[in-house]
Design a protein that fits this description.
By secondary structure, the protein is mainly beta. Helix content is 7%, strand content 37%. Strand 4 and strand 5 form a beta hairpin. The two termini are 33 Å apart. The structure holds beta-D-glucopyranose. Beta-D-glucopyranose binds next to strand 24 and strand 25.
Length: 392
C-alpha cells in the first residue's frame, strides 16, 4: 500500500473520531513500509458512474486477509458484490447483483440495498402519529413497501472510509428531509459497514430525527452461497431461532397475532432445507407465494444474539446472522422471474437468491401490540446486524 493511500486513511480516521475507532498501523510514519504492507485490510475507492441528476456514485472495495471482499456503492448503499471463500479456500461471489449503475437504477427488487425509512410493508400506506395521519406512496398494491419509490435505496449516500485495527470501515450518511416519501421529520441516518478479519460484515444503523417519526432500517442482500446463480436456493439449509411467526393476510400485512411455528413449514429451529416444505399446502405459504414472512426472534431481551443461519453443502459456506432486532424477514426470492440480468449473461430465475432482513415486524406503526418503531427527537436509533461467514 502506498503512502498516498495511507494519508487518505489518516484523514478518514480523524473525521471518524466520533465512531471511536483506532487504527494501529496508519498512524505510523512513512519510513515503516513493511508494516504498511502487512496491514490486514484494504479499502479502494473508484468512480462507479453518474446519476441523471449529475451525482457522482463511487464504489468502495473492502478486503480482509481471509479472502473476503465486499464492494459497496454509494447509490443506495448497495452491496454490489460479496466474495467469500468456499471450503477449498476459493473466494467467489455470493450475492445477486448487476454489472452497472444503469442496471441498478432500473426497477429491481432492492438488490443489495439499504432499506428505509421503513423497511417492509405499511398497510395501505397510512399511519398516524399524535393524531395526525400520514400518507405514503402505494408502491406495492395496496400497501407501501420499503420506504417508498425512492426510499433510501435509490439515493446517493456520502461516504467516509477508515481502517480500525483489523477492520475496514465504510460509514455512509444520508439526510432524509421532513416529509420526504411522506414521512415526518428530518432524519439523519448513518449506516456503517465494517469488514472484519474473521470474515464477518457488520452493519451498524444509526439515526436521529427532529420530529416524531417511524424508522425500520434493514439490508436487502440476496444470497446464493453456492455462487452458482443459475441454481435455486432450495438446497440451502436454514436455521431461524424463532418460536413464533408474524402471520400475514393475502396482501402480506400482519394479522396482528403471533403464531407458534411448531408443526408448520415455518419451523426452522433445527436446520431445514428451504425446499423441504416450501410447496406444502399451507395458507401462510400461499399468502407469501413461498417464504416471505417475518419471524419473531427468540431472546429479545438479550441484545445482539444469534438470529439465523444458512448453509450450502457443495460450497461448504455457512452464513450466520446476529442481530439485536426483534424480527427477521426470510424471503425465498419468490418474485424473481428470470427477467433481471446476471452480471455476466443469463438472468436470475425464480428463487435463485434469498434474503435475511433483520428488522421490526411489518406494519408496526399500525399494530398496537408490536414493539414500537417510533423515533422521537432526542432519541438515538441504533441497531447492529452481523453477517458472519465460515465453512464446514
Ligand atoms: C419483501 C418481498 C418483496 C421483496 C422485494 C422483501 O423484503 O418481503 O415481499 O417482494 O422484498 O421487493
Amino acid at each position: 500500500m502506498n503512502v498516498v493511500k495511507r494519508c487518505i486513511y489518516g484523514i478518514s480516521i480523524l473525521s471518524l473520531a466520533s465512531m471511536n475507532v483506532q487504527c494501529k498501523r496508519d498512524n505510523k510514519t512513512a519510513d515503516a513500509p513493511q508494516e504498511v504492507t502487512a496491514a490486514a485490510v484494504t479499502i479502494e475507492k473508484s468512480a462507479y458512474g453518474t446519476t441523471p441528476k449529475g451525482e457522482q456514485v463511487d464504489s468502495y472495495k473492502l478486503t480482509n486477509q481471509k479472502g473476503m471482499e465486499v464492494n459497496i456503492i454509494t447509490y443506495g448503499g448497495i452491496i454490489s458484490s460479496l466474495k467469500v471463500p468456499n471450503k477449498a479456500g476459493k473466494s467467489e461471489e455470493v450475492v445477486l447483483g448487476f454489472s452497472s449503475l444503469e442496471q441498478y437504477m432500473k426497477p429491481n427488487p432492492y438488490f443489495g440495498a439499504l432499506i428505509g425509512r421503513y423497511g417492509n410493508r405499511i398497510a395501505k400506506g397510512k399511519f398516524t402519529l399524535d393524531g395526525k395521519e400520514y400518507s405514503l406512496a402505494i408502491n406495492n398494491e395496496p400497501n407501501a413497501l420499503h420506504g417508498g419509490p425512492e426510499g433510501f435505496h435509490r439515493v446517493v449516500w456520502t461516504a467516509e472510509e477508515a481502517k480500525a485495527g483489523d477492520s475496514a470501515v465504510l460509514k455512509l450518511k444520508y439526510v432524509s428531509k421532513d416529509m420526504e416519501e411522506g414521512y415526518p421529520g428530518n432524519l439523519t441516518v448513518f449506516v456503517t459497514y465494517t469488514l472484519n478479519n474473521d470474515n464477518s460484515l457488520d452493519v451498524l444503523y444509526e439515526a436521529t430525527t427532529d420530529k416524531k417519526t417511524v424508522v425500520n432500517l434493514t439490508q436487502h442482500s440476496y444470497f446464493n452461497l453456492s455462487s452458482d446463480f443459475s441454481k435455486p436456493i432450495l438446497d440451502h439449509e436454514i436455521t431461524i431461532d424463532a418460536d413464533q411467526l408474524v402471520p400475514v393476510a393475502a396482501t402480506l400485512i400482519p394479522t396482528g397475532k403471533l403464531t407458534d411455528v411448531t408443526n408448520t413449514p415455518f419451523d426452522f429451529r433445527k436446520a431445514k432445507k428451504v425446499g423441504a416444505d416450501i410447496e406444502a399446502k399451507d395458507e401462510q405459504l400461499k399468502n407469501g407465494l413461498g417464504y416471505d414472512h417475518c419471524w419473531v426472534l427468540n431472546n429479545q431481551d438479550k441484545g445482539a444474539r444469534f438470529a439465523a443461519s444458512a448453509y450450502e453443502a457443495t460450497s461448504g459456506r455457512l452464513l450466520e446472522v446476529y442481530t439485536d432486532q426483534p424480527g427477521i424477514q426470510f424471503y425465498s426470492g419468490n418474485f424473481l422471474d428470470g427477467t433481471l440480468p446476471m452480471r455476466a449473461g443469463g438472468t436470475y430465475a425464480h428463487r435463485t437468491g434469498f434474503c435475511l432482513e433483520t428488522q421490526h415486524y411489518p406494519d408496526s406503526p399500525n399494530q398496537k401490540d408490536f414493539p414500537t418503531t417510533v423515533l422521537n427527537p432526542g432519541e438515538n436509533y441504533k441497531t447492529k446486524t452481523s453477517f458472519k461467514f465460515s465453512v464446514k
